[in-house]
Amino acid sequence: MEELLRSIEEKVRPLIGQGKVADYIPALANVNPDQFGIAIYSNDGALYHVGQAKKNFSIQSISKVFSLTLAMKHYGEDMWQRVGREPSGNPFNSLVQLEYEVGIPRNPFINAGALVVSDMNHSRFASPHYAMREFIRRLAGNPKLRSDKVVSNSEYEFRARNASMAYLMKAFGNFENDVEAVLHNYFDNCAMRMNCIDLAKAFSFLANKGYCRHTGEQVLTRRETTQVNGLLATSGLYDEAGNFAYRVGLPGKSGVGGGIIAIVPNRFSICVWSPELNESGNSLAGMAALEALSESIGWSVF
Amino acid sequence: MEELLRSIEEKVRPLIGQGKVADYIPALANVNPDQFGIAIYSNDGALYHVGQAKKNFSIQSISKVFSLTLAMKHYGEDMWQRVGREPSGNPFNSLVQLEYEVGIPRNPFINAGALVVSDMNHSRFASPHYAMREFIRRLAGNPKLRSDKVVSNSEYEFRARNASMAYLMKAFGNFENDVEAVLHNYFDNCAMRMNCIDLAKAFSFLANKGYCRHTGEQVLTRRETTQVNGLLATSGLYDEAGNFAYRVGLPGKSGVGGGIIAIVPNRFSICVWSPELNESGNSLAGMAALEALSESIGWSVF
Amino acid sequence: MEELLRSIEEKVRPLIGQGKVADYIPALANVNPDQFGIAIYSNDGALYHVGQAKKNFSIQSISKVFSLTLAMKHYGEDMWQRVGREPSGNPFNSLVQLEYEVGIPRNPFINAGALVVSDMNHSRFASPHYAMREFIRRLAGNPKLRSDKVVSNSEYEFRARNASMAYLMKAFGNFENDVEAVLHNYFDNCAMRMNCIDLAKAFSFLANKGYCRHTGEQVLTRRETTQVNGLLATSGLYDEAGNFAYRVGLPGKSGVGGGIIAIVPNRFSICVWSPELNESGNSLAGMAALEALSESIGWSVF
Amino acid sequence: MEELLRSIEEKVRPLIGQGKVADYIPALANVNPDQFGIAIYSNDGALYHVGQAKKNFSIQSISKVFSLTLAMKHYGEDMWQRVGREPSGNPFNSLVQLEYEVGIPRNPFINAGALVVSDMNHSRFASPHYAMREFIRRLAGNPKLRSDKVVSNSEYEFRARNASMAYLMKAFGNFENDVEAVLHNYFDNCAMRMNCIDLAKAFSFLANKGYCRHTGEQVLTRRETTQVNGLLATSGLYDEAGNFAYRVGLPGKSGVGGGIIAIVPNRFSICVWSPELNESGNSLAGMAALEALSESIGWSVF
Question: What ipTM is given for this predicted complex?
Answer without folding.
Answer: 0.93
